[in-house]
Write a structure and sequence with these properties.
Radius of gyration: 20 Å
Oligomer: single chain
Order of helices and strands: HHEEEHHHHHEHHEEHEEHEEEEEHH
Distance between the termini: 42 Å
CATH superfamily: DD-peptidase/beta-lactamase superfamily
CATH topology: Beta-lactamase
Number of domains: 1
């Protein structure tokens, strides 16, 4: 009988929708988001979603406009955090090492007649995940749906270098595509299965997946750095796991040391070549040249340890998952910029949807003290 009761409690805990804690007044945050949704300059006709955990407790959760708990939103570059975690799960189980080189795992993809062959062989997985690899993103091979990830990686490695690996930072998606293929090669599994087995299933992210840039086509070459889609609650599960140092509902998804490495500054003493957040210097000067970890931006870094104290992984369409270590906060602003999400074109490098996140971030910091 006792076993039956425990089984019933487990099933209920798995399926019952989250209930807000009443200890914190979310109304100022809701008012900000409501006014943002109603303001046409932000272009969020598809609505907004917001979830926030404090000390592991669900504290705020609300939708604005047509957005709902069933809305599945394109994450764009917010996918990078999910992808980095997927690859880091292979570091945890010993399949790969962060400082393994391309040459160790996919040396056969490098042309022996390439004058830069030796440099390319020595690019590390760490550099692929932190955009310090130097590979050219001139051609968007990560967006071509009808080739395989192996073919995409081979085409990427044929391109000439932008810079010597480890000397500069250039934000993009090419490096993660190569890292994704290394994950496939070393596990003998497809990316979708690696992600599903190691991240999605244990985090109850059943609607989160990587899609093809060509509707209804097979996902042979998923865009590792920008092709995922998810819901508010499922992305909330992910950032809660990151804030809890790898744990989710008493289950160890990633090791504490792995999460620490993901939130550790990886771009020290490198030249900044491409940094999208610098476009926001007028409204948020504190994020000018902010460093990068593995799959996430580090808005605040400890001056001694270089560990991130505030991390986020923003997407082009306005979705921003974030973790505030000092305030024990994990949260998600879910958004899908109407114009960009439907056309696939960047209407402006200075995206108005990201101003909503900046305003929300500032208000949260004002309302929640550092613990």
């Amino acid at each position: 009988m006792r076993i039956f009761i425990l089984y019933v409690l487990f099933i209920l805990a798995f399926f019952i929708k989250p209930v807000e804690s009443t200890e914190f007044n979310c109304e100022p945050l809701y008012e900000l988001l409501e006014s943002s949704y109603e303001n046409p300059k932000y272009k969020v006709e598809k609505g907004l979603g917001f979830i926030m955990y404090i000390d592991e407790k669900l504290t705020c959760r609300k939708f604005f406009g047509p957005m709902s708990e069933n809305s599945i939103v394109k994450l764009a570059s917010a996918s990078k955090w999910l992808s980095a975690a997927t690859i880091m799960s292979l570091v945890d189980d010993g399949t790969i090492n962060l400082d393994d080189t391309i040459g160790k795992h996919i040396n056969d993809l490098i042309d022996v007649n390439d004058r830069e062959a030796d440099l390319k062989r020595n690019i590390t997985i760490r550099q692929l995940l932190s955009h310090t690899h130097g590979l050219s993103d001139k051609e968007p091979y990560n967006f071509i749906p009808f080739i395989t990830m192996k073919q995409a990686a081979k085409l990427i490695l044929k391109e000439p270098f932008l810079f010597e690996p480890g000397t500069s930072f250039s934000y993009g998606g090419i490096g993660m595509q190569v890292a994704g293929y290394i994950a496939e090669k070393t596990t003998d599994k497809k990316w979708k299965d690696i992600f599903s087995d190691n991240i999605a299933i244990p985090l109850n992210m059943k609607n989160t997946k990587y899609t093809s840039s060509l509707p209804l086509s097979p996902v042979k070459n998923p865009n590792i750095a920008g092709g995922a889609e998810s819901t508010l609650d499922e992305l909330g599960n992910f950032v809660l796991m990151i804030e809890r140092q790898g744990f989710f509902k008493r289950t160890n998804i990633l090791s504490k040391s792995t999460v620490k490495e993901m939130l550790h500054k990886q771009t020290d003493n490198v030249k900044i070549l491409k940094h999208p957040w610098n476009a926001y210097i007028d409204v948020a000067p504190d994020i000018y040249n902010i460093p990068y970890g593995l799959g996430a931006w580090l808005e605040i870094v400890d001056n001694v340890s270089d560990d991130g104290l505030y991390a986020q992984s923003s997407g082009l369409y306005g979705t921003v998952p974030f973790v505030d270590v000092e305030r024990h906060i994990a949260g998600v602003l879910l958004s899908e910029n109407k114009d960009d999400a439907e056309t696939g074109e960047i209407t402006s490098i200075y995206e108005p949807t990201h101003i909503i996140y900046i305003n929300l971030r500032n208000l949260i910091k004002k309302l929640v003290p550092i613990q």
